[in-house]
C-alpha cells in the first residue's frame, strides 16, 4: 500500500492497447470546441490589427465604426493600461497596443457588434494614425541596430536575452583534441498551424464574475494573466479550457484576444465571442524560433566527444513570450543524449518586427539537436565509422548527472538505436545504396515536464481530485487540458487501473479553474508524468479507504486485497470478495462521502546556478529514427520512402495512443524537415517597407497530406523509470526531434551533399549539388558581444551545481505569493 | 471534390473571363438590355433572404444573406457545428459535407446555391446510438487525435466508400487527399478507410 513504489507492474487497463475514452465524440463531430459554443444575447468581437510593422500610434478614430449598425463597443489600448505576459520576466504585452505597434498583425483596437459580419465591417472603418519607425527584420539587423528599441527592457538595444555558460575548461579540451569539427547551421522558423483557430467566449456570470471558455493549453496561466491585466481578484475569474483542436504549443501563451473579450463581456454584461481567422492564427504564432547555430566539437581519435561549444542566435520576433526559456532550451538539453564531458553554451535572443516566437513541440531543442546529429554524421563519415556505432559508444549514462547538472533517469536509447538499425538494415545498407537513395540516422532526448514551474513557488505542479459516487462512477478532476494528445484518457486509465474498474467508468473533468485543482497546463510534455503521479496518489488514497472497509468486512488484511474487474477480492482466494459497488457502499458507510486528492511536485533540480532552472526534468525520454529517402539529382525532389522510429516511453500506459503520438511527431517532424517555413518578406520602400508574412494561408504554408505521409514502423522501448507513473515517460514531443537531422543525413547518403539548413528543400539540394563544397547552408556565425561566462564545474570535476563566479541573485515576492527570481 | 454546381475549375475561370468582359462593356448596354438581363437573373440581397435547404433528411427554412456560405449557415443558423471552419477557402476539408452524395467543401459553397440539393453532414451518419461503419473504423484504428479535422475526414471517407466499396491504397490516398490533419493521424486514417470498405470486416457494404 505504499505510495512511493510507482514503478510497479500494472494489472488492469494500463499497458493494454485500447481505443481512447473520448473517441466517439470525435468521429461524430460532437466535441464542443470554443467556436462551437454560443449563448443567448451573444455579441461578436473582431480585432483591428496593425498593417505596419513598427510604429508609434498617433491616434485612433473609431467614430465611423461606432456609428455603424449593430456596433456596441470599440476598445483601444487606453482600456488596457496593464501589461502581462506568460513569463514573470517578460510582461511586455498589452491586450491592445498602448503606445506603439511592433509587427504587422499587432492588435490596436477591438470592435464588438451584434453579428460577426457587423463586427468585421466596422473593424474596417477604424482609422489608426501611425508614425513609422525603423523596422528590424533579422537578428543580425537587431544586433546592428540598437535604436530604435522594439522594447525598452532586455539585455541591450534590441537584444532580449544573452546567456553564457561554461561547464569545465572547454578550450583546454579543444587544444588537446584529436579532431575538431566546426559547422554552422540554420533552422528556419515554422508555426504550429493548429487546425482549430483560437476562439474564446467570455461572460459576466449572473453574480457579476468573469467566466471564459477558451481554446487554451494553459488555463492556469490565462487565469493569472486575466487577473493581472484586468486588475481583478482571481477568485472571481473562472477559465474553462475547451478541448483544443490541436495546440502543439501555439495555445500556451495567454492571448490578447482572450483578455479583450473578457473585458468587453464585463463592460457590456453580455456574452462576447471571438474566433480568429486563419490569417490571425499566423499572427499569433509563438512558433519555432529561427536559429543560427555554430557547433564546435572536440573529439578523441575514436570520435568520442571531449567538449562541445555551441552558439545560438534566436530570432525572437516582437515580444518576449516564452523566449527567455527558449533561449536557455536552445542549449540546456544538448548534454542529455550523449556523454559530453565539457560544454560551453552561448545563446542570444533578439527582438525583430515579426510575430512573436515561442514554444512549439520540442521547444528550443529541435534546432541544436539538428546541428549535433548532422555533425555526428559528418564525424562518422570522416572517421570511417558507422553512425550508429559512433552514437552507441558514447550514450549518456542512466542515473547520472550531466556536465550541466541535468539528472538523467533510465535511458532506452541504446535499445532504440538497435531497433531502428535492425529494422532498416542500416548496417548493411548505409553508404551502400545506389546514387539517389539514402538512409539517415538520428537520435534525441526530451523533457518529461519542466522541473521548475514558470512561476517559482513551492506548490504542486499538478493536482487531482477524485469523487467516488454511489453509482460506481468515479469522477476525476484535474486542471490538465485535453489538446488531442489524450490526457483525458491517461487520467481515466490511471484511476481505472488502481481501482480495478474500466476506464470508461471514469468521468474526467479537466481544465476548469472553477472546478479542478491546478495543473500547470499541456506543455513541456509534463501532463502524463505530473498529472499521472497526482492521479496515482489520489487513486491510492481512495483504494486504501475502500480496502480498509472491505478488509474489515471480509476479515482479510487490506494489503492482500486486489482491485480488478470491478471487484475487490482476496489475492489468496479470489472467491472471497465483493463487487466494486458493494465495496464503495461499504466504504461510504464507514468513512462518509468518499473523495480524495493527490498532487505532484518534482524533486529539486541538481542545477543550482543561475539559469539552471531550465532543462531539469524528473526524467528524459529518448528516441531514434532512420529515414529512407529517394532524391532526384535533377530536380532535388525528396521522396520519403519509409521511417523507422523507436521511442523510449518508459512504459506505455495505452500503446494505441502512444503509437499515435509517435506517428504524429513523425508527421510534424517531416513537415519541418521538408517544407514548413514561417517566412517574411519586405514590401518595397514606397509601400511602407513592411515585413509581411509570405505565406499566411493553409494552402501556401505547406504541410504533409495523406499522399505525402510515408509508412512508419514504430518500436516502443519500455524501460520503466521510477519517476514516471507506472514508469511512463513522455511521448508527445521527443519523437519529433530526430526527424529533421535523420532526413538531412539521408539526403547526404543519397546524393552526397550536406544541406545544413531546415527545411531541406529541392532548391537547396540542387544548389548543394552545384556547389564546389557540396554543401548548402549558412556562412560564418554572426559576431555577438557575449557576456562573461558563468563557470560551473562538471560533477566529475568537483562541481556541486553552483557557479564559481555567480553574483548573489535578486529575488522578490510577487503579490500572489510567487517568488520571482531573475533568471 | 466535385463542385456541387457541376462546374469544373476551367468552366469557372472561363466564366470569370466572360464576366470581366461584360463588366467592361456594361456602360454600353442599353437600359432595355439591362432590364432584360436582370429579369433573367433576378438580383437578391444584400440583406437576408429566405431559403430552403434539404439537410439530413429534413427541409430547413432560414434567412441568410446571399454571401453566407453553406458552412456558416450550418454552423451559425442551424446549430450543426460538426462541420468545422478552418481555412475557409477550400484547402483543408474540415468543412466537408455531402451534396447529392458527393463530398463538397461547404466553406466555398453558398448556402443560397445549395437549395434543391441533398445535403448530408457528419451529424447524419450515425444511426441514433449506432455509429456508422466508417465511424467505428475511425475509433478502432485511432484515426483521430484532437478531433477537429475528424468530421471532415469521416465525411470524405464516407463519400469515397459510397463510390468505391473496397478502395485500395491509391484510391484512399486520392479520396482523402483534399483533407488536412495536423495531428498527423494519416496512418490511422488510411487503415480506417480501407478496413471500413473491406467486405471481410462486415458492415453494410
Number of extended strands of chain B: 5
Please provide the count of β strands of chain A. Answer: 34
> What distance lies between the first and last C-alpha atoms of chain B, to the nearest angstrom?
22 Å
Assigned CATH class of the largest domain in chain A: Alpha Beta
Query: Could you give me the name of the CATH homologous superfamily of the largest domain in chain A?
Result: Aldehyde oxidase/xanthine dehydrogenase, molybdopterin binding domain
Helix content, binned percent of chain A: 10-25%
Mind telling me the CATH superfamily name of the domain at 49-122 in chain B?
Beta-grasp domain
What does this structure look like?
The complex is a heterodimer of chains A (823) and B (205). Chain A is an alpha+beta fold and 823 residues long. The longest helix of chain A has 28 residues, at 527-554. In chain A, helix 10 (366-383) runs parallel beside helix 18, helix 14 runs parallel beside helix 15 (527-554) and helix 17 (655-674) crosses helix 18 (739-751). Chain A is built from 19 helices and 34 strands. Chain A has a seven-stranded mixed sheet, sandwiched between helices. Chain A has a seven-stranded mixed sheet with strand order 30-8-13-14-15-7-32. A four-stranded mixed sheet of chain A has the order 16-24-25-28, sandwiched between helices. Chain A starts with 22 loop residues before the first helix and ends with a strand. Chain A folds into four domains: 42-133 and 195-246 and 251-284, Alpha-Beta Complex (Aldehyde Oxidoreductase, domain 3); 291-452 and 608-776, Aldehyde oxidase/xanthine dehydrogenase, molybdopterin binding domain (Aldehyde Oxidoreductase, domain 4), CATH 3.30.365; 459-600, Aldehyde Oxidoreductase, domain 4 (2-Layer Sandwich); 790-821, no CATH class. Residues 1-27 and 200-205 of chain B have low confidence and may be disordered. Chain B has seven helices and five strands; from the N terminus they run ααββαβββαααα. Chain B is elongated and about 60 Å long. Chain B starts with 8 loop residues before the first helix and ends in an 8-residue tail after the last helix. Chain B is an alpha+beta fold. Chain B has helices at 9-24, 31-40, 70-77, 133-140, 150-163, 169-175, 186-197; strands at residues 49-55, 58-64, 96-99, 102-105, 118-120. In chain B, helix 4 crosses helix 7. The relative contact order of chain B is 0.12. Chain B has a five-stranded mixed sheet, sandwiched between helices. The interface between A and B is large, with 57 and 53 residues.
